[in-house]
Amino acid sequence: MISSLISVSAGAAILIATVAAVSDLRNGTIPNWLTLPPIAVAPVAYAGAFGFGMAIQCIAATLVSGAVPYLLFRARAMGGGDVKLFAALGAVASFEPFLGLHLQLVSFIVALLLALCALTWKGLLLVALRTTASAWKNALLLRRSRLEIRAASGHSVRMGGAVLVGTLVSLLPYLGFRWSHS
What we know:
The protein has helices at residues 2-27, 32-50, 52-74, 80-92, 99-121, 125-140, 160-171. By secondary structure, it is mostly helical.
């Protein structure tokens, strides 16, 4: 019974990530109708299935899963839809307390690899690495000694696909597939 409920939660999270990835690739947005209902419904569903303690765990997982993306959003390094998507996936996958963070870490690694590939393809990897090195150097220098850094060229990576890969890697083991040798 419990394993089937966990499989349903994992499947729901994968479905949410899939729809978000398609929407992000098509029009660059992740809709509220996809992310806000799971944030609201997951604590109630977990309370009904597992008790009040799991509802609290779900709320905590939602907040923790949305914290780093929210800080990145405030720094204008991530979109608001991505923040809500990570919070929703953290809520739905809160049957394991830190699964939302695991999913997030894998997603960020995939996004980093995609960004490095895109920069390499466009011939901008060395420029980006020099700019990053200058920014780190400036962080260590006194204000009057800092180097001038040209504005970034506006390249961005849409997170939807990376989040889908992170979700699949993190949640496929919970779907309850049973492999047997015949």
